[in-house]
Specification:
Shape: elongated
Radius of gyration: 48 Å
CATH class of the largest domain: Alpha Beta
Strand order of the largest sheet: 6-12-5-7-8
Helix content: 25-40%
CATH superfamily of the largest domain: Mannose-Binding Protein A, subunit A
Structural class: alpha+beta
Strand content: 15-25%
Number of helices: 6
CATH topology of the largest domain: Mannose-Binding Protein A, Chain A
Length: 360
């Protein structure tokens, strides 16, 4: 091989070596730039990934809140529908009460039922049919009720109201014995008793309503309880006597000879009517308390045999002082002394009171 050819081969090897060295030199001197370029692409991928995750989280929160909101809206709507259904049921009860009142003695038989309809949406309602069948499908915006007689002793009525699929029921019962007897009117028979508890003069005031309340409490807590409403036979002034409105015996005084009669708890007759009670004498002594015990003792009255106000009366029954006095009667008397014995009782004495029934 000639010298010139050998020289060319060596020059070519040198050039090739230089190129490879230049490439390595570039990589050696510019590694940061290369890595930065590669890292930038990686960061963009991570950012997209995080954005997708955040988007799905926000979407989940939104869907959850929407579900809760829709549930609350439906719940509020159901409450409104429930109120309408209740009013429909109440309408059925009112209708039955009206019919029984207008047509007494024509109560429906056990198991009888009927329906009614309410035009809620203003588009008309069925005029016949059975609730709720008649609401389908033309009257879905309306309400209905179905009334059923579930018992005849006592007369019991169940009314079911229906509105947009929500049902509410109301049940009532009452006696069909007829309207109540007018208060304190013959032939009613009422009770009178003397209290089992003693009161000083000041414990009765300051008005008749307070003393009447004492009688009522005694009657209700008796064993067994005494029925009816009671008035105390105690006068506070010329306008606050047992016979004055609004106190209960005013009804009896107005009836006069047509009033109810009064009897002791054991049934003993005291007076046939108001006129008989206030004519100066009574048929028997009022000597039984609310538990039918015999009581022979003085009673605060401040009231004469005609039911009128007497004074002194322990300063209108506000004084329990020993220096004040009041009129009293006695439970073993049948003449005027049953209510008007004397005015000399000291107001610090715990005397009894008479209690007269005035209504059922």
């Amino acid at each position: 091989m000639k010298y010139e050819e050998i020289k060319k081969i060596k020059k070519f090897e040198v050039r090739s070596t230089k190129k490879r060295n230049f490439s390595n030199l570039y990589t050696s001197y510019f590694p940061l730039k290369a890595r930065l370029a590669k890292g930038g692409r990686l960061q963009r991928g991570v950012a997209i990934y995080l954005a997708v995750i955040v988007m799905f989280v926000l979407l989940g929160i939104g869907l959850g809140l929407s579900t809760l909101l829709v549930g609350k809206i439906k719940s509020i709507e159901r409450v409104g529908n429930s109120v309408t259904a209740f009013y429909a049921a109440d309408t059925g009860i009112e209708r039955e009460l009206f019919e029984v009142r207008i047509f007494p003695g024509t109560a429906k038989t056990l198991g009888a039922s009927y329906s009614g309809f309410l035009d809620i949406d203003g588009g008309g309602a069925p005029t016949a049919g059975v609730c709720p069948d008649a609401l389908e499908p033309s009257y879905l915006g309306d309400a209905c009720y179905k009334v059923t007689i579930t018992s005849d002793s006592p007369y019991t009525v169940e009314s079911i109201g229906i509105y947009k699929g929500v049902r509410r029921a109301v049940e009532v019962n009452w006696s069909l014995a007829g309207p109540p007897v007018d208060p304190c009117k013959t032939p009613a028979e009422y009770t009178v008793f003397v209290s089992s508890v003693g009161y000083t003069g000041g414990e009765l005031g300051p008005s008749g309503g307070v003393t009447d309340g004492l009688c009522q409490s005694l009657a209700e807590n008796a064993t067994p309880p005494l029925p009816g409403q009671y008035t105390a036979w105690v006068s506070f002034s010329g306008t606050d006597e047992p016979r004055d409105p609004p106190r209960g015996l005013s009804v009896c005084a107005a009836e006069g000879a047509n009033s109810a009669s009064w009897h002791l708890p054991d049934g003993t007759l005291i007076a046939n009517d108001w006129v008989d009670l206030t004519d100066g004498t009574i048929a028997a002594a009022i000597s039984q308390d609310e538990i039918s015990g015999t009581v022979l003792i003085a009673t605060w009255t401040g009231t004469d045999e005609f039911g009128s106000f007497l004074t002194p009366n322990c300063v209108s029954w506000t004084s329990s002082g020993s220096s004040d006095s009041g009129w009293f009667g006695f439970t073993n008397q049948t003449d005027l002394k049953w209510t008007k014995w004397t005015s000399g009782a000291s107001c610090d004495n715990p005397l009894r009171i008479y209690c007269f029934q005035h209504s059922e």
